[in-house]
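Render this sequence as a predicted structure.
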Amino acid sequence: MRRITGKAKDETLIELQSATDSQTGDGPAVLTAFRINLHSDENNGNGVPLSERTSLPGHAETDKLQPNRDTVFFRDGVRRIDFVLSYVDDKDGEKKQERRREFEANLEKAGLELETDDKSDSKDQKTYFLKIHAPWDVLATYADILKIKVPFKESDIPHGQDVPLEWLSRPFRLPEHIMHPAADYFTYPFDKTKTNFFLINNKDTFFPPSTRNRIAAYAVFFFSSFQCRYWKRARNAECESERYNLYRHWARFLCFYKEQPLNLIRKYYGEKIGIYFAWLGFYTEMLFFAAVMGVICFTYGVLSYDDNISSKEICDASIGGSILMCPLCDKKCPFWRLNSTCLSSWQSHLFDNEGTVFFAIFMGIWVTLFLEFWKRRQARLEYEWDLVDFEEEQQQLQIRPEFEIRCTNRRLNKITKEMEPYLPVTSKCARFCLSAATVLFWISLIVACIIGVIAYRLAVYAAFASIIKDPMRKIQVVGRFITPQLATSVTASCINFVIIMILNFFYERVAVWITDMEIPKTHLEYENRLTMKMFLFQFVNYYSSCFYVAFFKGKFVGYPGHYTYMFGKQSKLRNEECDPGGCLIELTTQLVIVMAGKQLWGNIQEALLPLMRNWWSSRKGRHNPENHYSRWEQDHVLQNFGQLGLFYEYLEMVVQFGFITLFVASFPLAPLLALCNNILEIRVDAWKFTTQFRRPVASKARNIGAWQEILNAVAILSVVTNAFIMAFTSDMIPRMVYLYAYGNGMRGYVNNSLSIYNISRIPESNMPEDHDYWFDNSTTCRYRDYRYPPGHEKEYFHTMQFWHILAAKMAFIIIMEHVVFVVKFFVAWLIPDIPSDVKARIKRERYLIQGELHNYEVETKYLHHSAAGSESVGGVILCGCRLKSHPPK
C-alpha cells in the first residue's frame, strides 16, 4: 500500500509499498508495535540532564548493568524513546527481514531515528526491539498535517467562581497539579511555517504525551501497545510520569470517593479514552440522585408495610385461609389456600406501592436530565480539550487497511482524481444479506432459548408444586418461605442468566466476524456497524426474559375448564399464572438475578482475566530480577487493549443503563445497585489501564459516538415500558379502581379480585391427582380474574369491572406517557446543549485568533522588509484594534 499525506508529493512521510501488497499475507503482522512515551514530572517531561544522572537515587545500582536497563533513552542518553517495535524470527525470517529493512528505511526516510536491541539482550532470547525517536521536525510536520491544536496565548478567562460551602467538597478533590496539570491556553491548529506564533518554550515538552502518542501511531501506521510499567515508581527519576500519578491518585480503590483527574487522563491516554471516563463518571454522579429516590421509594414500602390491608387479608386465617384456590397446573398441582402466598404478598408490597408510580415518573424525567446535562458537560470538555472544530475525518474516516487489501477493484475518485479501492455492489449486497441472515439466526436462537426457559418454568412448576405442598403439610417451614412460584422463578432466572452468558460469549465473536466480512470502508463505519449489531443482540439477549415476565406472563391464561396451553393441549404445558398479588415480584426477581449476576461476573472477569493472562505470559521470567530486563521488556507481556477495547466498556454500561431505565418500576433499588457497581467499575477500569494493559493508541473523539443515539432511544422506550409495567404488571390500577369505584376502602379487595368457579365443572384432565382432607366439603374454587360466578346469566364472561380496569389501565398509560414526554421535551428545550459561558469562550478564542494572526502576519512582513533594508516612511502597523503611526527614520 502506498500512503501519501500532506499537500504535495515532497511532503510524503511514509510509503509502505510491499508491506501490504505482497501475496504472502504477512503485511502489518511483520512488526508487533508498542510505544513508550516518557515524560518526567520533576523536569517538565525532559527527563534528567545527562550531567546530573549519576546523582539520581538508584542510578548506581542500574549502572552495574550494561547497558542501563532502566533507561528511557537511546544509548547516547540524550534522545528519548518515543516508540518501540518488536519482532521475532520465524520460519520465513529471510523474507520478513527484507521487508523489515525496507520498512526501517522508510522510517528513516521520514526523519525518524532508530536503534535496535539484539535478541540476545532480551529475556526470551528471541525478541528484537526497534527503538524509535521522533525529532522535532517529524513532530512538527505531522502536527501540521493532523492540524493539532497548540497554545498561542495564555487564557485570560478565570477558571470559575467560588461557590457557597465549597469546603464541603474538599475531601472529594484531588491536588490541583493532578486535576489541572497544565495552564489554560487559547489554541490554534499548528502550522510549521508559523512556529513563532505559538508558545514554544521547550520543543521537547511542547506536545503532551497523548499528542506525541497519536503522532507516533500515525507515523508508524501500525497499532501499538505501551511498554513502560509506570504504575510502579521507577528507580530512575527520569521515568516518573503521568502514569504513576494516575495510578496513585486514580486507579487505587481507596480513591473511590475522589473526583477523576480527567485532564491528566486526557493528557496521557488521549481524548477518546478521556471522554469515556468523563461519561462514566458523570453517569455515576447522576445515578446518586436516582439511587436516593429509589431508596426513598423502597423505604416508603417498608414503612407502609403494616398498612397493607390486602396482604393482611391474604395472611388472615379467617379470610385468606378460608379461600380455596383452583389448581395452578394440571394433575400435579393441588387445590391450595390463599394464605400460602402470605410472604410473597408482603414482598410484593415493598416494590408495588403508590410510591413506585412517582418513582417511575421521576426516572423518566431523570433520564432526560442525565442526557441533557451530559450534552452540556460534553460541550465544556470539547472546548477545554480543543475538540470544537475537530473533524473526525482526519482519523475515523481514513480507509481501513483491511478494505484496501481485500478490495482488489479500483476506480477513479471524482474528488481526489486518484484511483482507490472499492467493493462492487453485487459483492456488497451478498455480504449484507449473509450478515442480516446471521444476525436474524442468532436472534431467533435467543428467542428459542427463551421459549425453552418458559417451557422449563411450566414443566418444573408442577414438580415443585408436588414437592412443596400446602403449608399444612410436614414441610411447613419450607413451604412457607419457598413457594413453587418462587422456586420456579429463581431457578429459571439462574438458568436464563447462564444461557445469556453462553450466547453472549459466542455472539461477540460472530458479530466481529460478520462485520469483518462486510469489509466496512472506514473505521467509523466499522464501529457503527458493530455497535448496532452488538446492541441489537444484547438487547434481545438480556431483556427478552424480563419482557416475557413483564408483559406476557399471566396475560393469556384462560380460566378453569378453558385454559390455554403453550404448545397445544397435548403438550400439557399450561400457561403460567401470576400470584394473587401480581407478577411484579417475579419481574423483580428476574431483574435482580440477571442484572446483579452480570455486574458481578463482569467485574470478576475484568479484574482477574488480564491479571491471570499477564502472569501466564511472564511466568518464564518471573524468577529473574526485574532490573535485569529493560522497561519495555518488563511490560512486553501486558495485554493489548485492542481497537475495540472501549467498545466493550461502553456496551457494558449501556446494557446496565437499560436495566435501570426500562424496568426500574419493578425494582426501585436498581439505581443503587448500578451506583455501587459503577464506583467499583471506574477504579477497576483505571487499574486495568494503568497496570494490566499496554498503553492504547491515543486518539481523539468529540463525543461518545453512536452510543448517544442508543441512549436516547432507550430513554424514550423506557417511558413506554414503565407505563405498561405499572398498568399491566403491577396490581396498582385494579386497587385504585376498587378503592374509588367499588369500595369505601381496601377492605374486601382480595375477595373482589378473585372469581368463582364450580369445581364439579372442572375437566378431569385439570383435576389434581391427590385431594387433602379439608377439600372434601368444598364445591367452588377461586381464580385470579374478573368473571361472573356460576349461575349468573353471563357466567364466566368478563364483568363490567374488568372493562373498567382495562380502560383505567389504558388511560393511565396514555396520561403517564404524555405527561412524561411533555416534561421530557420541555426540559430538553429549556436546557441548552452548550453552556453560555462556553459559547462566550469559543467566540472570544475565535476573535483572538483572528486578531493575533493578523498581527503576526503584519509584524512578520514588517520584519522581513526591515531585514531586507527597506525604508518605511510614515509606515503604519496594525496592532490589535489600533493603528500606530511610525515617524520616518
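Summary. Residues 758 and 791 are 10 Å apart (CA to CA). Residues 273-733 form one domain.
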